Amino acid sequence: MRKTFTLGVSAALALAVSSASGFAGDIKIAFIDPLSGPFAGTGENGLHQYEFAAEKLVNETGGVLGGQTFEIVAFDNKISPKESLIQLQVAIDQGIRFIAQGNSSGVANALTEAIDKHNRRNPEDRVLFLNYSAVDPALTNDKCNFWHFRFDANADIKMDALTDVIAQDDSIKKVYVIGQDYSFGKAVAAAAERNISEKRPDIEIVGNELHPIGKVKDFTPYTRKIMASGADAIITGNWGADMVGLGRSVLENGFEGPLFTYYAAADGITAAFGDAGVGSLKLVAEGQINPPANDRAAAYYNDFKAKYPDGNISQARITNVIEMLARAIDEAGSADDVVKIGYALEGMEHESLWGGKILMRENDHQLIQDVHIHAHSNEGVTFDYDNSGYGLVVDSTVELAAMDSPSSCKMRRP
Q1: What is the pTM for the complete model shown?
Q2: Which CATH code fits 9-153+296-368?
Q3: What confidence tens digit (pLDDT) does each residue in 7-57 have?
């Protein structure tokens, strides 16, 4: 069983990481995400997806630069920005030049600022930030920097797709917005208000509420307010234990309208909802799992399940991170010159394993890709989640979502 170590400042000089890959790869990628606490399941599954992608897509296919391999090195940040900065420094001290993180935009904001400062002060010791899931729009707008690359669609892009669906449903007259009280939750709330007012000004937003992240044990008080509001639909960016808690509470208390979500799948969430989520849960995300986009995607998923029978490929974008990084390293001709690697990444077009062309937009380092609206279902499910018989089926697709959307990024390049 993997042992994952959490470091204090006094332990920063000790060997502070673990990797389940079983070999010492030539090129190390630090995975800084929660591996303990209420969001440990999300972090653990993400770690497995990274380890598998590195092994299957790079190491088993000849590696990069003529044979160098990838190794994923795990750091437990306990979903804490402060702890994440400690782990970042440990990774840098160990010579790791690639930082992968995704759970919590609060953490991502802390990391991107710290990495920008570190790289300006240490030009011979720079690192790149591979953001695979933190979707606060500010990260590729006012807070953008050359060292940060986002591989997920941001909260605004996803909300644009979700509200297209809402706008077409004449039965929706009242919407309740609820989310976690940090930068991402606030971004979701703002995007929901803005998009609904533009697309369906007749819809009344009857609640817009934030709750403490990872601390609510009983969502009943929130559910009572939702039910009392007369809402026809709910919008939430909740993830992990907070998604399970909120979703269970509203469904068990008789809410019958749609729940429009960002992260209501896998990591125990799909199994928790089961039949209760059919016809109710909608989720916006990249990556087409059901039906599989192609034979290669189906084979990849089957191989993943063979290695991790209890795991899920819930973040398809992780394969894009690994494949695009490998390409950029080969194009740069070096695994150490992160400036060249960064320039190789920006503007890169890539054919995703999960179908369709993707593009790392040069001006702000936001990946542009197809965005799907999925439905929680037990029909048409080739690959389920949580071994539950239920999974996500594509309802509709926005191709290359937000391709021409504006950005306030004013990037300073090295």
Answers
A1: 0.90
A2: 3.40.50.2300
A3: 444 333 333 333 333 456 699 999 999 999 989 999 999 999 999 999 999
